[in-house]
Amino acid sequence: MGEPGRVGCVAHIDRFEPLDDGRSLIMVRGMHRFRIDESLDSSVHGFYRADVAPFEDVVRPRREAVLAVRTRTLGLLHRVLSAMPEPPDEVPAFDVEFDLSFQLAPLVQIDAMWHQSLLELQDEVYRLERLDAVFQAAVDQAGGEEGVA
User: Fold this and answer.
1) Residues facing residue 18 across a β-bridge
2) Domain 1-56 belongs to what architecture?
3) Residue 135: how many CB atoms within 10 A of its CB?
4) What is the CB neighbour count within 10 angstroms for residue 57?
5) Per-domain residue ranges for the chain?
6) CA 79 to each of CA 82, 84, 94, 109, 138: distance values in angstroms, whole numbers, following the listed order
7) Packing angle between helix 124-141 and helix 63-83, nearest 10 degrees?
8) Left, alpha or beta for 5 (phi > 0: left; psi -120 to 50: alpha)?
9) What is the pTM assigned to this prediction?
10) Which tens digits make up the pLDDT trace of 96-125?
11) What stretches of the chain adopt beta strand conformation (E)?
12) Which residues neighbour 40 within 8 Å (Cβ) at sequence distance 6 or greater?
C-alpha cells in the first residue's frame, strides 16, 4: 500500500439539493475504488487531478468462508442495535451476496483516517474484522453480551 490518501472511491451522485446559504446536501453512492498513480498539475484547473488505476481486493476468500464472516458481522451489528437505548425503527437491508464491509462502513461514526484505512484494505475479511471490533466495543460499552466467538 502507498502513502495514506492515495486510494479513493468513485461516487455516483444520487441526490443533490442546493441550500440557500450556498452549501449543498449531496447523497452519493460509492461505485468502485481507485488508486492514485500520479498527481497532475492542478494549478491550471484549480482542482486536484491525477492519473488513477483500479484498486481491487487482492484476497479472494472461499465464498463459504466470507459468507460466514459476513453473517457473524451482521449478527454483531444487530446486537449493537438492540443494545441502543433508542434503536432505529428500521434497519436497512444488507445484501450478503456483495461486499458487506462497504455497506456497513457508513454506519460507523469514526474519524476520516479510520475510514480511509478501511478503504485501503484489499481484503474484505480484514475490513469486516475491523468493523467487528467497533461493533463489539459498542456492545461492551452498552453492557451487552460477551464477545463474539
Assistant:
1) 24
2) Roll (2.30)
3) 25
4) 16
5) 1-56, 57-149
6) 5, 9, 15, 17, 9
7) 20
8) left
9) 0.80
10) 888 999 999 988 989 999 999 999 999 999
11) 7-18, 24-39, 50-54
12) 49, 50, 51
